[in-house]
Design goal:
Porin
Amino acid sequence: MMIGNPRGGVNVLTKFGLILGCMLVFLVSAVQAADDNKADLHTNETELAKKVQNPISDLVSIPFQNNINFGYGSRKNTQYILNIQPVVPLSLNKEWNLIVRTLIPVADQPVPERKFGLGDVQMTLLLSSATSGKLTWGLGPIFQFPTATGDSLGQGKWAAGPTAAVILMKGPWVVGVIGNNIWSYAGESDRPAVNQFQVQPLINYNLPKGWYISVSPLITANWKADYASDRWTVPLGGGVGKIFKIGKLAFNGSLAAFGNVVKPEAGPDWSIRAQIGILLPKALFD
């Protein structure tokens, strides 16, 4: 029996199978991470903030990132994207960790016609040194799956590429960068090929009692854009955040705003990013 449709895409069952597979990887990873995670619930808020800001730290987290994009498309509509981003560190041995980062986007897409549903799921695997120090790094692959429930919600392509992260922690500062480039290798034959770049500089200054100032714009480039003027999206902006606890459970909340100084013609003018993340240290599972 052929799995797919006449356009060469995957059918709904296959899409949900991919989603369930990603969720299974996360759940299995979380069980192991619960035993391996070195963070403790009694760690003060500032130290938890530094771990949250480090994309390759040994902290289990489940951020829910809400992105509201204003002035999107030719009619200047509002686009909404919820990114569910579980991060699970796995201890391979005393020297190496494997950081599993999953991105599950849910979007309200206003053009070409309003569509609400799941986007293309991405999974990143970062191999990182388990040795703590001021400078840490991670390197590995990133995979994109054509799980979108509508054409306007995804790219209809299987894609993969390299990803890397470098983080410097010194005093109250946590600075670094994480980026990737993916290329499509299969998928719907009548959809454009994918070749896109993404880099996110991370500049965080930590204040007392878990407060922090953050500058983390997401810069992207679509190398397949028809016009050079539609290739780059470069936002500028920043925001504030705080680590807080409710009972024994720790959370990370943040709010930021960005204006796109360079963008495609149909890209949004500016965005608000509101995030709440659940932090799951080892002690929670003891």
